[in-house]
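Hi C.,

You asked whether I'd gotten around to modeling the 155-residue construct. I have! Everything is below, sequence then structure, no commentary in between.
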Amino acid sequence: MKSEQLRFWEKVRIGWPNDCWEWQGGTDGTDGYGRFYLHGSGRKSVGTHRYALLAAHDRINEDRQVLHSCDNPPCCNPRHLRLGTHAENMADRMERSDYNRGTANSQAKLTDDNVREIRVLLAGGVSGTEIAAAYGVGATRISGIKTGKNWRHVK
């Protein structure tokens, strides 16, 4: 029987040292992250990026997340991976805009132009409750626009 690590690395397209080394096996089906089934685990799987970092360092802190510097979910190149906290992962995500914000989010009810109009209305003294009713959103959404918590990418 092949060693677990050999079985893992056979499913990775390894390139130059600084390239993304992409997982060629199965993924979780939702966000493109690879899944690797461990030997003797009764079908227990682990994220391929986590396994790659573990294989490179023999041991990783289970309380930490594995973060990509390349923003490429199937990448297994240990040079592109590092340990971090959930907060660091979310901060990286926000900084790189690699999540669906604004109109890129299929659930968004507002457009960038709507947000600009709302800001004008707020500056003119119209209440958040009135604006929310006019645009079919909750007052919390308008408050988030007013404080810059939401839609801050819209100038």
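If it helps when you're writing up: The two ends are 58 Å apart (CA to CA).

Thanks,
B.
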